[in-house]
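Problem: given the chain below (124 residues), write out its structure.
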Amino acid sequence: METFKKVAYWLLLIYYIYVFGYASLEKVFHTKSMMDGMNFLGFNYFWTTMIGYGELGGWLIVLFGLYKAEFRNLGMLLLFPFAVGAFTSHMAHHEFSHYFNALYVTVTTPIMLYLDKNFRIIIK
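Solution.
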């Protein structure tokens, strides 16, 4: 069972890194399709760029976390609001063809944090 958890964690993480990597870079480099999509969602040039840099920062922390696990968890916690925001925006605008990746990163963030033996939340 422990092996299954490790394999599941790393498979989830690979696609998680891919999704945030391409989404953040498309926003930062202002690809036409991403800028048009974000404009449709109500985000102008400035906010799309800021969201892109925020996602890029969290994504880089997750990548650095491949060497230091605590940074990976920090990056995931920083990216979680972007995931929830993307999912909410796509659902509110009935963009069902684009919402799978947002749903994926929203659902898998807590799953990966749960599966990571280095992450615990303690409430006293």
